[in-house]
Amino acid sequence: MENKAKPKYKLILDAAVEVIAENGYHHSQVSKIAKKAGVADGTIYLYFKNKEDILVSLFEEKMGQFVSKIKEEIERIEKADEKLYKLIEMHFRQLSEDPSLAIVTQLELRQSNKRLRFEINEVLKDYLALMDDILEGGMKDGTFQAQLKVKLVRQVLFGTLDEVVTNWVMKEQRYDLVDQARDVHYLIYNGLRKHN
Amino acid sequence: MENKAKPKYKLILDAAVEVIAENGYHHSQVSKIAKKAGVADGTIYLYFKNKEDILVSLFEEKMGQFVSKIKEEIERIEKADEKLYKLIEMHFRQLSEDPSLAIVTQLELRQSNKRLRFEINEVLKDYLALMDDILEGGMKDGTFQAQLKVKLVRQVLFGTLDEVVTNWVMKEQRYDLVDQARDVHYLIYNGLRKHN
Amino acid sequence: MENKAKPKYKLILDAAVEVIAENGYHHSQVSKIAKKAGVADGTIYLYFKNKEDILVSLFEEKMGQFVSKIKEEIERIEKADEKLYKLIEMHFRQLSEDPSLAIVTQLELRQSNKRLRFEINEVLKDYLALMDDILEGGMKDGTFQAQLKVKLVRQVLFGTLDEVVTNWVMKEQRYDLVDQARDVHYLIYNGLRKHN
Amino acid sequence: MENKAKPKYKLILDAAVEVIAENGYHHSQVSKIAKKAGVADGTIYLYFKNKEDILVSLFEEKMGQFVSKIKEEIERIEKADEKLYKLIEMHFRQLSEDPSLAIVTQLELRQSNKRLRFEINEVLKDYLALMDDILEGGMKDGTFQAQLKVKLVRQVLFGTLDEVVTNWVMKEQRYDLVDQARDVHYLIYNGLRKHN
DNA sequence: GATGAATGAGAGTTCATTCAT
DNA sequence: GATGAATGAACTCTCATTCAT
User: Fold this and answer.
1) Distance from CA of B1 to the nearest CA of A (A)
2) Domains of chain D, CATH where assigned
3) Cys-Cys link to B144, which of A160, B80, B192, C35 (CB 3.0-4.6 A)?
4) CA–CA separation, D134 vs D152, rounded Å?
5) Would the CB atoms of B187 and A192 count as touching at under 8 Å?
6) Which residues touch strand E (CB under 7 A)?
7) SS3 state of residue C172
8) DSSP three-state, residue D147
9) For position B109, what pLDDT does the model report?
10) What is the pLDDT of residues B138-184, one digit of tens each?
């Protein structure tokens, strides 16, 4: 078992992603997650307050890593439009590489109640702030138009990425998601850059 | 009572929108909808196969009207970029004018299970086809670039509209949604048009 | 079935008394009560808010009848000491005639939590008030000493009755409870009456 | 820490009384008692067979002391009616001085199941025997009537004391319990003594 | 067509107890 | 002797759907 080494906390979160991706949010009983994780039902509650807490933690954990990785790569890049491209490309790449996670974030987690979705939004703020940074950087250095409304542009960007990924998931991942990055970047960048 | 005239079918759908907007998807029991509609629980099942059918019907009905109205307006317009603007503006306007419906479509209906969401997507196809028409028209007459990937652009457009409306709903509709139409159109159009 | 005539509400309460007397408070699941009553589990919740509500209702219903019957008999009697005797005799007689109820009130219901016990005490107030009436009547007409502390005497009386019945229940009802009435009355009355 | 000296056995029993008085019987988990006692959960099971055993031991220990103290005092007294008074007074005094214990014995321990209550009754036998001794002594020496039924009188006495203390606990100990001793003794003694 | 009382399957969570260290 | 992480059985309540009237 590769599980011997992993702490139970991680073990349970990974099991949750798999179980939810397989069975859907509403058919993912705690007992199923426990079984997949190889622990007793009660053990779950030593690490999580309740079922919802598993989901929030799952999202925090995975989204945290997701954003960190993008941040890391972007810091090495100078130009705003290249940063933008990198963000798009890595957004697609990371979800591409973990299809279970993609199913969970794009479809299943949205079935949670409003309160949980607000908590999820809280976690997303970090990501949105990263987008704002790129946009503001580009506006300053002249890559993008100066009078853009950052909050609105960020909604265009996030909405686009989210929809493109959701589409890919609902089409059962039958095409390559990362391939879309170039075109998406072109459309968005064209919308933002200066034109003569 | 204004309800005397309305057929029970409509009565129930309207009640469903109100109940879901007020209580949230997961607290909208069939009995609550029946009460609000002024009919017995059992009566619901004379008009709808099951609870899910209420939701699908609700979406079909409302979305049907939603799309028809936009179609109607757009047919009168010649230029592709103006059609595009009209679509954006009316998308925002219609949801602006029916906040209960906005809450239901943007937040509550997404809590339904995957199967229901596939059915909802089915209903959306008509709307997406309309977008495709506008885009293809613009590509033909030279308003937009000729080599655009329609399916992808449609995702950018729909994803953007959806995100902007969702944002507005989650911000508790504290600002004017229709005011955003001009800027959103500018960004999208800029992404699509020819540049010298 | 003799049950056809009875309304479900009564049916459930009667079933509850039997089930609790047989299995003890902590082994009386709602499903057991439903089965004994011949209804579905869910039906219970059409008539009672929750499990605790069954118990409170049970106590209110049974205790209400219990006290009414005693009241009725006592009204016909003039002398305070005879009223006192009647109360004691009927207290014993009624519990004697419904051993299941005796088990439930003397042993099982006391296992409920503090909150429920406060509600039960509320129901008892009527009975205690009846005791007060008898005592005050006797103090006025010279049957009992005039300077008695009614609240304390009532505790002596109730505590005594309660203990004697509990003893009888715990001794598995191997002797006749009503036979004790004469002696208990003698002891209590002796404690209260005037002495030369 | 004053606890260093105390053996774990005592430490756990004292913790149990406090925890139960504070939280109520049903919210007094073994882990809470362990924490209060400053030992690990598992340690409890080195000293007690199971949770119930804690409660029985608690009652044996405390009740043993309770009865011994009363016995001790009573041996010094000659007259039966004075012995009776002493018993009443000390019953009240001891519970008065340890309100946590009073809550536990009068309210919380009664929520235990029937089997535990039989075991508790076993422990009480010693106390009841002491009452019997006083009563029989008084019957012999002419203080009390000769034809009293000792077992019944003992129920009157115990039932009275128990109810008076319970009342005091439920009234949140807002008055002085020991003050009641004189009146209670008067009522009981009057019921027992010879009258001319 | 309309009613609404009755149904019964289904799941999150607690906590006494164990046992490897 | 002492620890405390892990176990897993057990139970209330909700609500979509049915069907006799």
Assistant:
1) 34
2) 1-48 (1.10.10.60), 55-192 (1.10.357.10)
3) B192
4) 14
5) yes
6) A 27-31, 41-42, 44-45, 50-52; B 8, 39-43, 45-46; C 8, 39-43, 45-46; D 26-31, 41-42, 44-45, 50-52
7) coil
8) coil
9) 83
10) 999 999 999 999 999 999 999 999 999 999 999 889 999 999 999 99
